[in-house]
Amino acid sequence: MAAEFLRALPISRRLGMALGMVLFTLAFGTAGYMVLSGMPFMDALYQTVTTVTTVGFRELAPFGAGEKLFTIVLILTGVGTVLYTLTLVVQESLEGDVRTRFYRRRKELEIERLRDHYVLCGFGRVGQEIARELRERGQDFVVIEQTAEPAERARAFGYLVIDGDASEERVLVQAGIGSARCLLAASDSDAGNTYITLTARNINPGLFIVARAAYPHNEEKLRLAGADRVLSLYSLGGRRMVLLALQPLAADFMDTIASGRHGDLVLAEFEANRDNGLAGQSCGELLHGARSATLLGIRRRGGELVVGPRAADILADGDIIIVLAEEREIASLRMPAAVPGNRG
Fold first, then answer.
1. Pairing mode, if any, of strands 208-213 and 305-307?
2. Strands (DSSP E) along 96-213, which ranges?
């Protein structure tokens, strides 16, 4: 019954109980030899250890019948306890190593299968907020972090994590930078973000890169390194505080829009091109039949941002459309042929 009870426990608990039994056996044997043979503590402990480990050294004192019977009992109980504990130690170390290897390999395969995902470099305070937002929006992403503690923290959240320096080409390739949608350079160092941007741009020239700048004078360096967007937290924080002070309702509205989902409405952006048939249409034709949709803006291919475009404005090849609509209508906006009145 005792053996069945131990086998039913998790191996870590079994190991703890087995180690406890070994300590009890050593204490029991030491006390027994001290009482029966009058051995000093060290000699009694030595005699107990040599007995339960089956080393077979000679007795430290002449044994009478009582000492011999006690030794027999100690051998029958103690040797089995020690061997069982050693078996559990080996099993625990092997299973732990196998579990770790299996977990890492499973995560590596998940990363290899990712497509059109985000690569987040750095898991500090800014990186944690970015990861939280990406998860809430249901986006696939990989975290690259070279410091052990933040990397373990990211794993505790259940994120896919790669340990390493994001400025190394090998690490970025492991994160699937070639098939990624966007890279976010969010480390605490402007120099580190610059090297990350340079390396990523060299690997994937078409990658969209957003970089964090701690100091405003480094923004231009990051743009020269290849960042498509550079975010200065100090500048952004200053503008945000002024907006809250002067126009708090407008600031709340912008926060609501930026959150991505508003009840049944979703904030989305997609490209107009010849392949999907959106290029050449007017904004009015795009929204025909989409009752809940609101066209917020258009990013022209040349970089100009048109806020609140008119119905007569024509979409050009490469324009990015920003729209607020119900999720079911987003698909119809991407498929103009399915909407009556659109040109083929």
1. unpaired
2. 118-121, 141-145, 160-163, 182-185, 208-213
CA distance to 67, 265, 288, 289, 316, per residue, from 284 (Å): 102, 19, 6, 10, 14
CA Rg value for the chain: 34
Q: Is the dihedral of CA 299, 304, 306, 310 positive or negative?
A: negative
Q: Residue 144 pairs with which residues in a beta bridge?
A: 121, 162
Cα end-to-end span (Å), the chain: 78
Contacts of 116 (CB under 8 A, 6+ apart): 140, 179, 180, 181
Give pTM, 2 decimals: 0.58
Q: Which two tokens stand for residue 174?
A: 């492991």
Domains of the chain, CATH where assigned = 2-108 (1.10.287.70), 114-238 (3.40.50.720), 261-338 (3.30.70.1450)
Burial of 61 (C-beta count, 10 Å sphere; 0-12/13-18/19+): middle
pLDDT means per 10 residues in the chain (344 residues)? 45 71 85 84 85 74 78 80 78 62 78 93 93 90 94 92 94 94 94 95 95 90 93 78 80 68 70 85 84 85 86 89 80 56 36
Is 162 exposed, middle or buried, given 0-12, 13-18 or 19+ CB atoms closer than 10 A?
Answer: buried
